[in-house]
């Protein structure tokens, strides 16, 4: 694969020779996580995931196939997959809602009667501080893990809590629109289009983060849908049953 294309500031560049592309990385004009493509590749990939592409002095920054399960998570299939990321976050939010609702019911169930817009706002705000715990510990979340999605820095290592918190804050503002009606519709559409056509969200590009996908099988998709339905059902039935004991109906 001698002829390459790459993305820079959201625009497709090329064709260039492999030697010219390597020089762009060596000179710092391109980050190591920039998306590249050449004939024979199924889809665009982050440069550091392509064996033999980076300059020799950067070779130690490539993910390896060692016993470390995190660094062995190699990309496969399309890497710009907005709907998968949407459903992964949806499962995470529903699961968090279930756990949070149990806590609320045990403490003060009447809190569940506040207006849905307010409840969604505080729910998304609270999750913003919980998600970084998972990303910094595992590089993924339950929803992302089920859909084979991982998050890392450009060198293939996990984010620390501060970095993950900054990313979650940007997702909350730019992606979820502070969980405000109408506003979140606009931010969702904007983020969707940017990821689909430019290959990265604004918060991942600004932070130098890489979201890696692997191909999903039909069984895993069916399992994900089943988990989503079960958790949603438990959330709806559990809250209602708990509130019935307080003569409160939702």
What does this structure look like?
With 250 residues, the chain is of the alpha+beta class. The chain folds into 2 domains: 3-61, 2-Layer Sandwich (Dna Ligase, domain 1), CATH 3.30.1490.40; 82-244, no CATH class. It is 51% helix and 12% strand. The protein is built from 8 helices and 6 strands. The chain has helices at 18-26, 82-107, 116-138, 142-146, 161-175, 183-198, 202-207, 218-244; strands spanning 3-8, 11-17, 35-38, 45-46, 149-153, 209-213.
Short recap of the structure:
This protein is an alpha+beta fold and 250 residues long. It is built from eight helices and six strands, in the order ββαββαααβαααβα.
Topology overview:
Elements: E1 3-8, E2 11-17, H1 18-26, E3 35-38, E4 45-46, H2 82-107, H3 116-138, H4 142-146, E5 149-153, H5 161-175, H6 183-198, H7 202-207, E6 209-213, H8 218-244
Antiparallel strand pairs: 1-2, 1-3, 3-4, 5-6
Helix pairs in contact: 2-8, 3-5
């Amino acid at each position: 694969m001698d002829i390459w294309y790459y993305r820079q500031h959201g625009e497709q560049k090329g064709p260039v020779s492999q030697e010219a592309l390597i020089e762009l990385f060596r000179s710092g004009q391109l980050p190591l996580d920039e998306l590249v493509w050449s004939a024979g590749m199924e889809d665009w990939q982050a440069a550091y995931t392509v064996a033999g592409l980076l300059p020799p002095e950067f070779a130690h920054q490539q993910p390896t196939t060692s016993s470390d399960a995190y660094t062995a998570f190699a990309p496969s299939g399309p890497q710009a997959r907005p709907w998968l990321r949407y459903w992964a976050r949806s499962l995470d939010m529903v699961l968090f809602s279930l756990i949070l609702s149990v806590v609320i019911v045990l403490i003060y169930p009447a809190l569940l009667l506040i207006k849905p817009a307010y409840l969604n706002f505080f729910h998304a705000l609270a999750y913003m501080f919980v998600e970084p715990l998972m990303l910094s510990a595992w590089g993924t979340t339950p929803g992302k893990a089920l859909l084979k999605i991982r998050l890392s820095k450009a060198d293939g290592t996990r984010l620390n809590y501060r970095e993950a918190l900054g990313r979650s804050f940007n997702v909350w503002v730019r992606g979820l629109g502070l969980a405000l009606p109408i506003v979140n519709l606009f931010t969702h559409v904007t983020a969707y289009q940017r990821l689909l056509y430019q290959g990265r969200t604004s918060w991942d590009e600004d932070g130098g983060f890489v979201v890696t996908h692997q191909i999903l099988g039909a069984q895993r998709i069916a399992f994900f849908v089943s988990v989503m339905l079960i958790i949603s059902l438990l959330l709806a039935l559990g809250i209602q049953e708990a509130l019935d004991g307080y003569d409160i109906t939702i």
